[in-house]
Structure formats: structure tokens, C-alpha cells
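Our consortium's second objective concerns turning raw sequence data into structural hypotheses that experimental partners can test. To show how far this objective has progressed, the report includes one record in full. It was chosen at random from the queue rather than selected for favorable results. The single chain below, 366 residues long, was entered without modification.
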Amino acid sequence: MTVTGILPAHEIEALMQGGAVGADRDFVDGQIQPASLDLRLGSRAFRVRASFLPGPKRTVAQRLFELKFDEIDLYNKGKGAVLEKACVYVAEIEEWLKLPETIGATANPKSSTGRLDVFTRIIADGTDRFDLIRRGYEGRLYAEVSPRTFPVLVRRGSRLAQIRFASGGSRLSDTELAELHARETLVAGQAPEISSGIAVSVDLKGDSPNSVIGYRAKKYTNPLSIDKTAEYEIADFWEPLIASRDRTLILDPDQFYILASKEAVHVPPDYAAEMTPFDPLVGEFRVHYAGFFDPGFGHAAAGGHGSRAVLEVRSRDVPFILEDGQTVARLVYERLSARPKELYGSELGSHYQAQGLKLSKHFRMG
């Protein structure tokens, strides 16, 4: 019987060795994660008039020919290029696919990309949906990139997105999710609400009356390099938010916030999770651009006890009041086709294991 589910790292390596996943340049160390593959920007990006999808009978290259008005050299003698905020770019991806008919894929921004409010989606040829790659797809990939808060410096090889491969059905039903939570405690605290996923709420109380419960992004900053780690001062880009007495926070329109979940989150070794980016029933805001949680996130044996989900929040057209403990998102869980040989954690150099409220890896955290 064929085992279905999300493919772990060693099965992704098998796809690469068999020619189902290739690249214009050699793959690099650390590109394969426990259940996903980092995608790298290629040598060119194109500024376009508007976001688009090619549709079922056209390629991305054909649409770019019609819509592009500026071509950008992402290598630029190693200097890279600045992508300005509020602009839309489509960049070539180094990796290409020649998937078997039994394998499909989904993509998502990397955690660090989402925490910078860089809206990133993957586009394939002949598709009418972002971030979904049909089974048996053969062709190139492209990244739509739109910085929303900070201008960002990117280069050929910068990693903004990641891709997961799957064989057959993998998502847990609510009944299966409840059973898994009973065995593994997926979210700590009170008995969770389970409906099309497991509910996650926001922490606006903090550890003390004067604790920092989040950050609001500054609107006018210098460019920030995607490839730097622990390079920037927090105060140059963020304003800290202090817990209020009434444990509420008013989200201002067109502002970007980093908050944290009230619950500790656990992804057992045989599973992966994804946070749904927006639920129109919970309010006029979007939560969590980067939705992938690797197997082992928050797993005690992998050094992740107490890991919380970081919430990347952008308000929409009207101010909106968040209250402490309010449900803001849902986690859906998927089974793996096999247990990965390495879990998300310190041994892989994972930046966000055992995290509480935490900005992206680009900032010096003290």
C-alpha cells in the first residue's frame, strides 16, 4: 500500500536525485528543511503593473511579456537590488519541477519573510491559484514579491519562500485532530476549539503589567537586507507595544504588527502544520503570512518546549479592537508520509524554536 502525506526531507532528497526537482545552480547546505525545500530567487525580477495569475492555458513568461515595465538584475555583481514597498515584482526562481503524477506541492513565505511583511506568493505556469502546484507539474516557478512595510534588499539566491511536496491526502479531519491533541497536546492551556483546524488566540496580557506584548512597524525606514542575520537595531524599525490595563489593542488601518499566541504550539514529529492566513469571520485583519510549521516545532525532545506562534498581523480598512485571548487564526495539521530524520530545532540552526514573542532573525534581540 502506498503511504500518503507530506514528504519529509529524505524523500525530498530522493525527488532531487531522481530529477523531479532541479535547479539552475547547485543546491546549498540548509536549503532542505525537515518537511520543505527553500526556494531561491533567480537572476532576474520584473516590476509589473499589477498582480496576476497566468490562467490554465498560459505561461507566466507570456503574461510577463505583456505586463512588465522594468527588468531588474538581482545579481548585479553581487550587490543585489532594492525592492521598494507597495510595488509588485515577479522574480524567477532557481528551482524547477518535473513532478511525477502522484506528487503535488504547496508553497508559502518563509517565517522570516512574513515577519518583515514581504508579501510573497509562488506562481506556476497554467494555474489559476497562487502557491498551489498541481500533481505532475513540469516547468519553472516564479515568485510574486511585494514588500508592504519595509523596502528590502534581495539578491540572486535569497530565500523568501518554501515549498512542500505531498502524495495523496494528508490533512487531518477535526475528529483526527481531536484524537491527536488528546495524545500529544497540540496547544497548551484550556481545551481548544476544533473546527476546520485548531483555534489559536492572541496574548495581549504578557508576563507582567508593563511587559512588551508586541511590536508595531515604523513606516519610513532604510532598506533591510533579506540575507542578513542579527544586523539591525529594533528601534530603527519597530515600536514596542506595552500591555494595557484593559488587555486590548486597537489595530490601525494599514499598519503591520508582530504579536504572539497565548498558547504554546506543538507539532509532533510525524506531522506538519499550517496556520490559515485569514479568516473573515474573526475580524478585519490578516494573520500570519508564513504558515508552515515544521515537524518538531515546539516538541520538547527537540528543545522546543513552550514555543509560541508568532502572529504577523495587518489590519485592513478600518480600526479593529483585539482583546486578550481572542481567537485570531487556526492551525491545520497534516500527516507526513514518513518521520523525518531530523526535526525542527537547534541542531538544524532553526531560528524560532522555543520562541515567545520574537521578531525576525534580522534584528539584534539583546
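The partners drew two points from this record. The longest helix spans residues 174-184. The mean pLDDT is 90. Both points have been shared with the crystallography group to help prioritize constructs.
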